[in-house]
Structure formats: structure tokens, C-alpha cells
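Reminder: ligand-aware prediction takes two inputs, not one.
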Amino acid sequence: MASIAEFSKEPKYTIKVLSERTGVRPVTLRAWERRYDLLDPDRLDNNYRLYSERDIEIVRWITHRLDDGLSISNAVREYKGLRGEGIWPEALPTVLVPQPSKTPQHPPNVYAEKLFEALTSRNEVEAKNIVDTIQSMFDLKVIFFEIFYPCLYEIGEAWYRGEIRIATEHYASAYIRGILLNLLQAFPIYSAAPTLLIGCAPEEFHEIAPLMLSVLLRREGYQVEFLGADLPIDDLVAYAEDVSPEMIILSAGFEETAYPLRSFQAKLNQLSTKPIFGFGGRYFNENPEERREFEGVFLGESLDEAIDNVHNLLDE
Ligand code: B12
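Here is what comes back for the chain with cobalamin:
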């Protein structure tokens, strides 16, 4: 394992990047800086902070000590004690999430078409090459929204037109689901962060959108549990009583799957922790007038909007 001293001191990352790479919200990072004098970032002309790879490793080390049960003041004291003796702590093992580093050769839609071709012709070797390539070039949001989404959309259309078999559609969606699950598990879990349960309404089996949302929110440092398809409401309320999440997010694509969600927030309000219920999905996008019939928070038409709304609801 490398020592933190081996990481570059060159200031180049904004607080948003530091936050995404460590799972610590910007407001918390600023508080640690102010109260404990933890980091001393460079400032741009507009006074924005700029952090280095070394800063990222320091914050990761501190959060690891918090996970061990230390308070923030004790974790910082320990870190400063080591530094006072001229010792740099060991850096934590790095997470296996691919980081984009290459310049894109084509716009994302070209890769969406290539992936569609590879998956519908059951060429998994080619599909893997494409996924490796896009992970080396694009941010996860571009991969999810501009490559996976249009690819799946076309698969649905091709199935609807009778051009591909149901089994081919299942194969393709299972492949993409597998990539997403791997990504979800590659991000670290921060036990001090707010807990979110994310999944599908009862009898709803379209789980790829909530899975994408789970990956993106875990990347932002939330403690996300992805619960998958077809969640029975009463069991989920009992689970929420055990787990005490800050928020539960469910997706529904059809009237029948959305319907049982009407009473969900009322049931959650009977728990002492009163988790927030957030919802979204194809049914609510296609029937905007129905949203107000549901107690809870409609999180937006897109996953990007949902991420902003989760921040607004949980970071206050
Ligand atoms: C893969 C797939 C399946 C798989 C799902 C596998 C899995 N593990 O997820 C399986 C085989 C299970 C399946 C089953 C069915 N499917 Co299907 N399926 C699809 C397909 C091809 C892709 C869906 C997908 O994952 N898209 C990618 C995600 C990212 O996009 P999305 O789900 O549309 O979500 C977007 C928004 O809705 C929103 N969103 C979604 N959830 C949430 C949540 C929150 C909180 C927020 C803020 C936003 C949000 O954000 C996303 C990005 O913009 C679509 C094709 C299509 N055009 O969408 C058909 C499609 C959705 N399926 C369809 C149908 C009809 C069915 C079945 C009824 C088929 C059948 N006869 O059995 C069943 C229904 C099962 C059920 N009760 O849920 C139709 C729906 C038509 C309609 N309007 O009614 C579609 C559109 C196919 C078509 N062209 O006709 N399906």
C-alpha cells in the first residue's frame, strides 16, 4: 500500500470532485476545514477551492477512521498527531470504479448503436469491448443516459416490432443490469451518510432506472441499498422500521404498479423516523396530473433531477 505522501500535491479538483471521490458532502468538507483546519486548499481567482490527489487521500483516511467509530475531532487529532511526528498514514486501497481518462473517439449515440448491435447479435465479447471503451471515455451519467438508455429503448422498440425475441431483450437487459450491479458494488459504503432504500413498486419489474439512480447516489456518498423489483409495501414498511432509512425511493411504470404507492407515505409516517417517500418512473412521466394524488415527493422526470432533489431534501 502507498503512503499518502506519494500522492500528488498539485491542486486540480473542485470541492464537487473531492466530495464525489470521498462521499463527504461539500458542506461537511467546508465545516471540517473551518473547525478542524483539516485541509488547506488552493484558491482560484473566483475564490473556489482546488484540491489535490493527496487531499482526496487524507479525507478518505479520515472517513475510514469515522467508520471505525472515532469522532471527527479524534480522527483529525490522530491524523495531526501522526503528521506532527513526520509520519504520513497509509492510503486506503483504491476503489475499482473505472475513471474516464481518454478522449472520446465518437459521440455517445454511436456507442449506443454499437452496443445495440452487439447485444442483439449476442456478441458478448464485442459488448464487453464497448463497455470497457465507454468507461474509459465517458462519465457514468453519459454512459447511463446517452448510451444505455437509448440502447434499451431501441431494444424495447425492436421487441415491440417483433424484430427481436423476448429472450434477446431479456439477455440484453440482464447484461446491462449486471454492469450496473458491478458498479454499485465497486463504490464504497459510508456508514455515516444518510441511508436510502431504492427499488420498484409492487409488481414492477423495470429495475434498471432505479438501479442507475442507486449507482449515481452511492457515487455521491449516500448509503444506498438497492432492493430491486416488486417490493411488497407492507414488508417494505416493516423493513424501514428495522433499517431507519432517511428516504425510500420507488419507481413505477404502470398504473397498476403505481396505485399501491398512494398510501405509502401515510404508512411511513407511522414510524418514529418518518422516512421521506420519493417516487418517479414512466407512469408519472406519462400522467403528470396523477402525481399530486400521491403523498410523498415526486422526484422529477429524469434521474438527474432526482439526484438534485435528493440533495435538497437530505442535505439541509
Ligand atoms: C428491459 C425491459 C423489460 C424487462 C425489465 C428487466 C429489468 N430487470 O429491469 C422485463 C422483461 C422484466 C420487462 C417486462 C415488461 N415490460 Co418492459 N421493457 C423493457 C425495456 C426494453 C427497457 C426498460 C429500461 O430499463 N429502460 C432504461 C431505463 C433507464 O429507462 P426507463 O425505465 O424508461 O426510466 C426512465 C424514466 O422512466 C425515468 N424513471 C424511471 N424510474 C424512475 C424513478 C425515479 C425516482 C425517477 C425520478 C425517474 C425514473 O428515468 C429513466 C431515464 O429517463 C422497455 C423499452 C422502453 N422503451 O423503455 C420495455 C417497456 C418499458 N416494457 C414494456 C412492457 C409492455 C412490458 C411488459 C408488460 C411485457 C409483458 N407483456 O410482460 C412487462 C411488464 C412487467 C412489469 N409489471 O413491470 C413496454 C411498456 C409500454 C407501456 N407504455 O405500457 C416498453 C416501453 C416496451 C415497448 N416498446 O412496448 N420489460
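The chain has a mean pLDDT of 93. The first helix runs from residue 15 to 22. We will return to this case in the review session.
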